[in-house]
């Protein structure tokens, strides 16, 4: 079981900002998951990988792929109080789900 | 309502690694919170701040402070598969809780 979080490298977010967006995406996708998937993922150490995306359209395409595979996912839009324009899509989390299934959605992306 | 996540800057984690540790801490403290606090925090946009810590002992002191104030919190130890030694304490999340109460624990720390 794992969760993959794809964050937009093209936005040049600061480290703390990036971490907050990733955490937001992670928690939201977790909440979108079923009780069984949540439990299995937590029981196995809640494995996470943070991956590098490069555009809003890419994140939406990946979200669509996750949807079609029946995986939980969440897109994060920044509230825009600080570094980003309000409503900027900054991150997508996919899973928790089986490693194989998550990899079919995000497996081609480099580590952040 | 907010949650503060204190990550150790002295470990010089890469950006993606840092984000994963922060997400791990965030979710674990969230799970430690009561149903009411979780709901109120999510309803108000799950505000998060990522702050800069500089030692393991500091994180434990802050965790102790959170405990005494009755705030949910979680300490993250890295599994050590990649950048860090196994068991390294990398991050602490405090809250969700009222902004005032969380600030009494972590209010003096700089943004990451």
UniProtKB/TrEMBL annotation, chains A, B:
<comment type="similarity">
    <text>Belongs to the PTH2 family.</text>
</comment>
<dbReference type="InterPro" id="IPR002833">
    <property type="entry name" value="PTH2"/>
</dbReference>
<dbReference type="GO" id="GO:0004045">
    <property type="term" value="F:peptidyl-tRNA hydrolase activity"/>
</dbReference>
<dbReference type="Pfam" id="PF01981">
    <property type="entry name" value="PTH2"/>
</dbReference>
<keyword id="KW-0963">Cytoplasm</keyword>
<comment type="function">
    <text>The natural substrate for this enzyme may be peptidyl-tRNAs which drop off the ribosome during protein synthesis.</text>
</comment>
<protein>
    <recommendedName>
        <fullName>Peptidyl-tRNA hydrolase</fullName>
        <ecNumber>3.1.1.29</ecNumber>
    </recommendedName>
</protein>
<keyword id="KW-0378">Hydrolase</keyword>
<dbReference type="InterPro" id="IPR023476">
    <property type="entry name" value="Pep_tRNA_hydro_II_dom_sf"/>
</dbReference>
<dbReference type="GO" id="GO:0006412">
    <property type="term" value="P:translation"/>
</dbReference>
<dbReference type="InterPro" id="IPR034759">
    <property type="entry name" value="Pept_tRNA_hydro_arch"/>
</dbReference>
<dbReference type="GO" id="GO:0005829">
    <property type="term" value="C:cytosol"/>
</dbReference>
